[in-house]
Amino acid sequence: MPESISFSAPRGMRDFYPDDMAVRNTIFDAWAVAARRFGFEQYDACVVESLELLKRKGGEEIQDQIYWFKDKSDRELALRAEMTPTLARMIVAKQNELTFPIKWFTMAQCFRYERMTRGRKREHYQWNLDIVGEPSALAEAEVVMAAVDALKQLGLGSNDVRVHVNSRAVLSDLLAKLGIPRDHHAATFLALDKRGKISDEEIAKLLTGAGLPQNSIDATFKILSLTTLESVMEALGERTPALEHFLSFFDLMKLYGAGDSVIFDISVIRGLGYYTGIVFEGFDTGKSLRAIFGGGRYDNLLGDLGGKPMTAVGLGFGDVVIAELLAEKAKLPHPSAQKDLAISYMEDAQRDTAIRAAKALRDGGANVDIALHPEKPKHFFARTGKVGFRRGIYIGPDDMTKGTIRIKNLADRTEQEVTLSSLGI
Fold it and tell me: Which domains can be identified in the chain, with CATH numbers?
């Protein structure tokens, strides 16, 4: 006998039934409104990318972490795991035609073949915001504020989510102050980013493998004990350009009235090697979930891919963790939020009037569902109540005789009588 077919989505992937789509659309709407409110233009791209592009950006090991394949012409392709390499490719392709700085956003479906944990699936949608060609800290501030604005639209404020901020450039200055050569900094960042995921002893072994002597390793862990900007300034002993940029960001966030939404956190490092300056991650205040979003300044990616070197700031904000947080906070949209009004009728004789009423109400801006065949009133009200319609109109022979219809509030059973003539029927 043939094997039975599974009716579940492939492992790590998702189906979106109408109730799920209500949640997804609420998140997408908040993203899009916030992006446009902050002056970002929308773009999109193909979901399949050149494997070579992804390897150039993520290294050879990326091949083990993504879905890749060969097409019928033996080309190596992959489902995109993130949007930044694609964005860089698109900008390099038209770098001489674009007017900088640019502010772009997209809501991209991304795929990554990796172990699943809470808040991490093998497929997700990600809101990406990028500002390319602007060196000032205002670029970081605008990107972070757009994310804060989206959270606000979803009913979440600084009591729910905080943005943890660090600077890899400042951290690099601190490491240099310890006498650690800058060519060891990238490996140091990679090791320190694993803190909390592996033991400090294992991190020390990684740092030893990167060529750091024991005294430098001890000093590096002391840096991670710095908890305030004041202690960082004292450890540096001077206001370096990186520190000035970092302090400027915090001043700007205060100017935006969002100083309570951001906190300094030296443990935020971000594992991706292309980050060069300020980095940030958004967490629920109890830190019970993975990062809601993350990003930072990346100044070398365009040049590394063959374009003209150009500074950039980006943010990635996934749909999985934020949906979990909204559920925890009881802020998920009600499935019936878009189920405004349903119309039905007793007999075929009332069908045309029901259609005309539906058209008139739709033209007036209402969302109207019309029954596709006659039904008894008991069935109509049971059906519409079950799926969550807010209002209902049931048309029978008596309504046709009187020339009126009754719009019933299905929650409190109150009625509003409307003449057919007022609807142009």
Answer: 18-45+83-328 (3.30.930.10), 339-423 (3.40.50.800)
pTM above 0.85? yes
DSSP 3-state assignment of 307?
coil
209-235 pLDDT per residue, tens: 877 888 888 878 888 888 899 999 999
Helix (DSSP H) and strand (DSSP E) numbers for the chain: 15, 16
Strand-pairing partners, residue 350, are: none
Q: Which of 328, 329, 330, 290 lies closest to 119 in space, CA to CA?
A: 290
Helix, coil or strand: residue 320: helix
Instruction: Strand 48-50: give its sheet, edge to edge.
Output: 48-50, 76-79, 68-70
CA-CA distances (angstroms) from residue 244 to 182, 195, 251? Answer: 20, 27, 10
Sequence-distant contacts of 370-375: CB under 8 A, at least 24 apart: 370/342, 370/343, 370/344, 371/342, 371/343, 371/344, 371/345, 374/344, 374/345, 374/346, 374/347, 374/348, 374/350, 375/344, 375/345, 375/346
